[in-house]
Write a structure and sequence with these properties.
alpha+beta, four-stranded antiparallel β-sheet, three-stranded antiparallel β-sheet, elongated
């Protein structure tokens, strides 16, 4: 995997011109520096318009028992000032309040929108947040934007890794996330050139950013604002009945924090193009006084939480580590585990046939596998280990792939085979741990010394990854011990 040097990942701090409701325009810095030392959440302007009043004025509804307040390390959030019964409406947004944009419109319409469509067409689909981010930047630059009361309340800083100093990016110590951070930084630096080229000779009325300079720093702010705050709403239905999801910014609703056990949920009434569409948040449970409103952002691992949202979830049940399925690596792991006659590098034809069915061999295989999360061991990897450690083709072919991929089905190919497979995974975990330059105890000691916000996030991220690995090792070791004790009892009986 190609990598960009960490020292180049931190983008230079530049000035970005933005509009204000009180002053027609003012200069405000957009920085890609590390987190500010202040604990208070910093909004885009020092004294933004009252967001709650704006929503109510536009026909929205905010439960009288809700208020905006600091939410510990998560910045601003929504808090219940009084107990709120289950099923209560918490927030309602009329159809014109969410901020979205259709990037499939023809270029024959409004000049500004046509330029945004052209720019968005050059953004890869996986970075959809940049597409909506272009619209967000356009509205931020526009004097008198309808959404200014919302935009001015957005954070000035985001805690995502593209804003980390280079040394703190290195401190993540986890190659898959480093690759993604480098990839986004490279994109932003390259896309800055694209934007400048597209808008260079535009007429003032066609300039989507009011003639203001848009650089990698401001693009980074926009992509972070959208990735950490946008929701996907139900869009139009396709002829086959499938429904297209449309990303949109939902003012105030995006101040709800995350929990895997949320006390609120989003309800969308009607299609997003319907003038009577209403997006609302409803109390999923009874909400106690002083309790923060929480939605479930998704069953995500800590890579995605940090990359897109700028935080990690301790003891995240969906966190995992990524590995590359590699024959020589598996051979080394199985030998280290004391498994005799490993055959990972040179599988027999019948084994290769099954590996192809698992998409681990043949044309265009997907070699990325994972450990951790709900599966504990990804089914494709577990099935491959069971098959490659088996010598009897007929006994393997008695079972379907779903059986071979399931950890809950105990030893389908016999105890020795299962013990070998699990011990190989344990050895893979040991190898993965050795790839981290620091030990878990060293990380915990560093946190106690007091570090910057971005350094703290980086250290906590790698602590969680190491904890995932150790938890997998403990679980699989327990399974091996149980299997061996059952075999001993059976042999004695």
């Amino acid at each position: 995997m190609a990598r960009l040097g960490a020292s180049r990942m931190t983008m230079p701090t530049r000035d970005f011109i933005m509009s204000s409701a009180s002053a027609l325009s003012q200069f405000r810095p957009l920085t890609c520096a590390s987190l500010p030392s202040a604990t208070q959440a910093t909004r885009l302007v020092p004294h933004p318009p009252d967001l709650l009043k704006w929503l109510k004025r536009e026909g929205g509804f905010v439960n009288p028992s809700l208020r905006i307040a600091e939410a510990d390390s998560y910045g601003l959030g929504l808090v219940a000032s009084e107990e709120i019964p289950k099923g209560s409406d918490l927030i309602k947004l009329p159809h014109h309040v969410p901020l979205g944009f259709s990037f499939t419109e023809p270029e024959g319409g409004d000049g500004t929108d046509s330029v945004l469509v052209k720019l968005a067409s050059q953004v890869p689909e996986e970075l959809w947040s940049m597409k909506l981010g272009l619209k967000l930047l356009s509205e931020r630059a526009k004097v008198g934007s309808f959404w200014w009361p919302y935009i001015s309340n957005l954070p000035e800083y985001y805690t995502v890794p593209i804003f980390f100093p280079g040394d703190d990016i290195k401190k993540l110590q986890y190659a898959p996330l480093l690759y993604q951070v480098n990839k986004r930084c490279r994109f932003l630096l390259d896309f800055e050139k694209v934007v400048k080229q597209v808008v260079e000779n535009l007429k003032p009325n066609d300039h989507p950013f009011e003639g203001q300079d848009v650089d990698a720093s401001s693009l980074g702010w926009a992509i972070s604002a959208v990735s950490s705050r946008a929701f996907r709403l139900h869009g139009q239905k396709l002829p086959n009945g499938a429904q297209v999801d449309v990303p949109m910014m939902l003012p105030l609703i995006d101040m709800c924090n995350h929990s895997f056990n949320p006390n609120a949920r989003i309800v969308q009434e009607q299609d997003y193009r319907d003038p009577h569409m209403l997006v609302k948040v409803v109390a999923e449970t009874e909400i106690k006084r002083h309790e923060h409103l929480c939605l479930n952002y998704g069953c995500l691992n800590n890579d995605l939480f940090l990359l897109d949202y700028g935080f990690i979830v301790p003891s995240n049940p969906y966190d995992c580590i990524e590995l590359k399925y590699d024959g020589p690596l598996l051979d080394a792991a199985s030998i280290a585990a004391g498994v005799s006659s490993p055959n990972f590098s040179f599988p027999s034809p019948w084994q290769r046939q099954i590996l192809s069915q698992l998409n681990l061999d043949g044309e265009a295989p997907v070699l990325k596998v994972s450990l951790g999360g709900p599966e504990l061991v990804e089914g494709r990897l577990l099935a491959a280990l069971r098959v490659l450690l088996a010598s009897d083709m007929e006994s393997v072919k008695k079972h379907n792939l779903n059986t071979l991929k399931s950890l809950s089905i105990e030893a389908p190919l016999g105890t020795p085979n299962e013990v070998g497979a699990l011990r190989t995974v344990i050895a893979l975990c040991v190898i993965a741990l050795e790839h981290f330059p620091t030990k878990l105890m060293e990380d915990e000691a560093l946190l106690k010394q007091g570090v910057s916000g971005s350094t703290e996030l980086a250290i906590k991220f790698r602590i969680q990854k190491k904890s995932v690995i150790l938890d997998i090792m403990r679980d699989l070791s327990r399974r091996v011990k149980l299997l061996l004790s059952k075999e001993t009892i059976a042999s004695q009986g």
